[in-house]
Specification:
The chain is an alpha/beta fold and 281 residues long. 50% of the residues lie in helices and 12% in strands. It has an 8-stranded mixed β-sheet, with helices on both faces.
């Protein structure tokens, strides 16, 4: 069962359908649900009897409430989510009294600039890391079900704690998204003749800035602490470089940043079998 038929939820459903699984779909928006059903992602409505796994595919701020609702309804033997922040939803679920023994947090490191079921792909997760964030309360059966989901979607399961996950995505996803937005924002009020000179480089740097702002406000708010910490370090680097550029002669601060940037770029994993646009959301 998949609750929430946006980009990730529908992509999970399409991947499972491709693997031969029966999938039931629910969404609070009937129009969005109908689009997912039309794409062959599954059967609308809750399952007639409990299923092996329920995937909660909603924004971070809604995970806990939806999790409690589906657990109370008894829709599945185990539950997971696909939100890009883990610690805050887990705390909320704990406060609401959700059954943490049947739940394991999950985050497939894949996405796209476009949202909604119309952008979903069955191969979105192929070769991508799928982070699982069990707690001491998580049962082996729940963790096994979430791991099986990731493998069925063609992903590579990776186990981290919720806090480790949130610190990691601040570095590899959330702050890079903000930096793309900062670069793209320079173009918003720039003269048209200037923007017309833009080439592939600026398109590459700003690609993820085309994502839904409201979605990203929710993501960044839920991971505010780790994101702010990384941004402080970025701001310090920018301040040093700006000061160096204002000096009579450009000093080593500029070259140091460029060298560190090239080194960091070189540490990224090589292309995977099916690279996903906007990966890491």
């Amino acid at each position: 069962m998949v609750v929430g038929t946006g980009l990730l939820g529908t992509s999970v459903a399409l991947a499972l359908r491709s693997a031969g699984a029966d999938v039931w779909l629910t969404d609070r928006d009937d129009r969005v649900l109908a689009l997912a059903v039309d794409r062959g992602a599954g059967t609308p409505g809750p399952p007639p009897q409990p299923v092996d796994l329920c995937v909660v595919a909603v924004p971070p701020g809604a995970v806990a409430d939806v999790l409690c609702d589906v657990q109370l309804a008894g829709y599945a033997a185990a539950y997971t989510d696909v939100a890009s922040v883990k610690a805050v939803p887990l705390r909320a679920a704990t406060e609401l009294g959700c059954d943490l023994s049947t739940f394991v947090g999950g985050h497939p490191m894949a996405g796209a600039e476009r949202s909604g079921p119309q952008a979903a792909r069955a191969d979105l997760f192929t070769g991508r890391p799928w982070v699982l964030t069990p707690t001491p309360a998580t049962s082996p059966a729940a963790l096994g079900a979430a791991r099986a989901l990731a493998l069925a979607c063609g992903a590579e399961p990776v186990v981290l704690s919720p806090d480790e996950h949130d610190r990691a995505v601040a570095v590899v996803s959330h702050v890079p998204h903000l930096l793309a937005a900062l670069a793209a924002a320079r173009l918003a009020d720039a003269p048209a003749a200037l923007v017309a000179l833009a080439g592939q480089g600026v398109r590459d740097v700003t690609r993820v800035a085309a994502s839904d702002p409201d979605l990203w406000v929710g993501i960044l708010s839920a991971n505010a602490g780790p994101v702010a910490e990384v941004l402080d370090a970025v701001a310090a680097d920018l301040a040093r470089v700006a000061a160096a550029l204002r000096a009579p002669a450009v000093d080593d601060a500029v070259r140091d940043l460029l060298v560190r940037g090239r080194t960091g770029r070189g540490r990224l994993p090589g292309p995977r079998s099916q690279p996903a646009p906007g990966a890491g959301r």
